[in-house]
Design brief:
Length: about 300
């Protein structure tokens, strides 16, 4: 897909309110890139740098954005969940709500939710100090993800889709298209201090990309063990991380309410449309009196049979 340039943007996009913020990107070069995740904390290997970027506020033109053009969309989504910190309530109610939203917004035939995570900009040091063995990275509490990334890489996306279909729809006829997305909602009062920035997927093809293998651990490895060869790494789940490129066009939605939700693409097997959406948390210095960011994200895989 050809890279999208600013000159291709509509006038309404060019005139949107802008904020400047620091965005973390992986550096160019040859080094081992891995992401280690433990309870309440995350660690990337390799080297990263912060770059100042322009992030446009899409809230005043929220109806302008479409999933297949930009790679993301914002919509109203009422929920019966009263307390997102109540794990049992989330698991009882929210999974079906997410699947219904995805089916409604995409027109897919089937959808299977694949797990959720809470994130907060609050201090998690006490949470980290109470670590338990056997961390599973499902339904937990983590800090905001603070670098430009997509949660899947193309090879792992295909494996995830096939495994999901076989698990949830074993008697199905098979699928001709799959779509992996994140359903994202902030439930703390607006404005939030660290909102989510979304990159117009059409602009995401400039610069260097790397795969970032995910390791879920109780404790982080130390020293050389962080980058030592690991058997079977090429078959593990990996994200895509991005180096800086000036063509990236970033958006956010200032002052999101509890009934606002974002749906954005990790991987769409139909590459005739925009098929991915890099994203990252950022500190919004323009938000006066901001509250801590609390959010819930739910991954799912949709299928067209």
């Amino acid at each position: 897909m050809a890279s999208f340039t600013v000159s291709d943007g509509s006038k309404v996009e060019d005139e949107a309110r802008q904020v400047r913020a620091m965005m973390r990107y992986v550096d160019e070069g040859d080094f081992v890139t891995r992401r280690f995740v433990s309870q309440g904390e995350e660690l990337n290997t390799g080297t990263y740098s912060d770059h100042e970027v322009v992030i446009r506020d899409g809230m005043p033109l929220r109806d302008h954005f479409s999933l297949d053009t930009h790679g993301f969309t914002i919509f109203k989504s009422a929920t019966e969940v009263s307390d997102f910190h109540d794990k049992q309530e989330v698991e009882r109610l929210y999974e079906r709500e997410v699947e219904a939203d995805v089916l409604r917004l995409t027109g897919a035939d089937k959808c299977a939710a694949r797990g959720w995570m809470l994130r907060t900009s609050a201090d998690l040091s006490e949470h980290v100090s109470k670590k338990e063995k056997g961390y599973s990275h499902a339904g937990g509490l983590q800090p905001p993800a603070g670098e430009a990334h997509v949660d899947t890489a193309p090879a792992t996306a295909r494996r995830m889709a096939q495994a999901t279909y076989e698990q949830f729809f074993p008697d199905g006829p098979g699928f001709k298209r799959f779509l992996i997305t994140s359903h994202w909602r902030t439930f703390s009062p607006p404005p939030q201090d660290m909102p989510l920035a979304l990159c117009d997927g059409r602009t995401s093809f400039g610069g260097e990309e790397k795969e970032n293998t995910l390791f879920i651990v109780d404790e982080f490895p130390q020293g050389d063990a962080l980058t030592a060869p690991m058997e079977g790494e090429d078959t593990m789940l990996a994200a895509t991380i991005f180096s800086y490129h000036p063509s990236h066009r970033w958006w956010y939605f200032a002052g999101m309410q509890r009934d606002d939700a974002l749906l954005f693409k990790f991987h769409d097997s139909n590459h005739d449309v925009t098929w991915r959406c890099p994203h990252s948390a950022f500190f919004d210095s323009s938000a006066s009196g901001a509250s801590l960011r609390e959010s819930i994200e739910y991954r799912s895989v949709a299928f067209w049979e």
